Amino acid sequence: MSVLQLARPEIVALAPYSSARMEAQGGAIFLNANESPWPPPQDAGRGLNRYPEPQPDALLQRLARIYGVRSEQVLVGRGSDEAIDLLVRAFCRAGVDAVLISPPTFGMYAVCARTQGATVTEVPLRDDCLLDIDAVLAAVTPALKLVFVCSPNNPSGGLVPLAEIERLARALDGRALLIVDEAYIEYAEAISATTLLRRHENLGVLRTLSKAWALAGARIGALLAAPEIIALLRRIMPPYPLPTPSVQAALAALQSEAQALMGTRVAATLRERARVAAALATMAGVRVVLPSRANFIAFRIDDAANHYTHLQANGVVLRDIGRYPHLAGYLRLSIGLPEENDRALALLARAEESA
C-alpha cells in the first residue's frame, strides 16, 4: 500500500507550486516575479529585493548530510509548526479523520488538528510521564491518519526508546503515519528515529534549528520523510516560506566549525541539567524532579503558583505547566547559563524558606 493512499485525494490531485525561476534552473536576468529590480538600501541587506527559493537547495543539502537522509526527503518551513499543520491538512478531512496525541505534550498537534476539523484522540502518558505504547495501539481506529509522538517529550522530558518507535511504525504500517517530533533530540544522547526512515515509509521525523542550533528567531524546522510525503506537502505549502536572512543564518550555523560549537554547548547544557536536577532534588518543598532528556527540567514543588509569581517578580521567568494532565503543581525550568540557573535556584530556595 502506498503511503499516499492515506492522504486526502483532493490534495494528491494538486500540482505543487512552481516558479519560472525554478523551471529555468538558473539565469541572470529575472523579469518573472514582479519584483523591484533595485536592491534595498545597503543596511537592509543584499538580495532582499528577490523572492527566496521555495525550498533552498543549499539548505536541503546541508540538512540532509547532517540528518543522514537524501535531500528529497527534507522539507523545510517556518519551524516544526508549519510541517505539523501541513501534515494535518494533507491527511485529515474535517469531520472524518483523526489525529492521536499523548498528553501532556506539545500543544500544536491538537491545535492544528482542531483547526482542520479533525478529531483529536488523546491517549495520556503513563503516571511516570512516559508513552503508553499498548494504549496507543489499542486506540487505533480506521479514522486515524496521524500519530504524533514527541521524543524527548515537551513538557515532561521523557524519551521514547527507538525500539518502541519502530514497534509503533510497524504496527501502524498501512493504517496511519507516525510522526516523531525530535525538537530536543540533540540533548538526549540517543539515536534518532531518522535511522528508521528507510525501513518505514509511514514514518516522519520533525527536527528544528530552534533549540540546540540556537536559531529560534530564524524559525526553521524540517520534516524528514519519504519523498512521496515531501512532494505531497509541497503541493499545499506557501511558495516562499523561509525569508532569505533566515536561510543565510541557518547555512552559517550549519558549517562544520559552528557544528562543533553546537556540540560543545550541548555538552555544557547536559552538565548544567545534571547539576540543576541534583539541586532541585534536595531543595525543600520539591516533591518530584522528572528525569529529562531535553534542555529543561519539569519539577513538582509545593505552592508552585506562588513560586512562579515570586520568580517572575524578580525577573526570572519559568513555565507553569500545572494545567497539563499529570502535572498539577509542576514548573518547567529551561537550562540557561550557569549564573542564570543559580539565580533561579536561589529564588526558589528563598521563596520556600519564606513560605
UniProtKB/TrEMBL annotation:
Catalytic activity, EC: 2.6.1.-
Origin species: mine drainage metagenome
InterPro entries: Aminotrans_II_pyridoxalP_BS, Aminotransferase_I/II_large, HisP_aminotrans, PyrdxlP-dep_Trfase, PyrdxlP-dep_Trfase_major, PyrdxlP-dep_Trfase_small
Cofactor requirement: pyridoxal 5'-phosphate
MF annotations from Gene Ontology: histidinol-phosphate transaminase activity; pyridoxal phosphate binding
UniProt keywords, alphabetically: Amino-acid biosynthesis, Aminotransferase, Histidine biosynthesis, Pyridoxal phosphate, Transferase
Any Pfam family: Aminotran_1_2
Biological processes per GO annotation: L-histidine biosynthetic process
PROSITE patterns per the UniProt record, alphabetical: AA_TRANSFER_CLASS_2
SUPFAM superfamilies: PLP-dependent transferases (SSF53383)
Domain named Aminotransferase class I/classII large: residues: 42-345
Protein name, entry field: Histidinol-phosphate aminotransferase
Pathway: Amino-acid biosynthesis
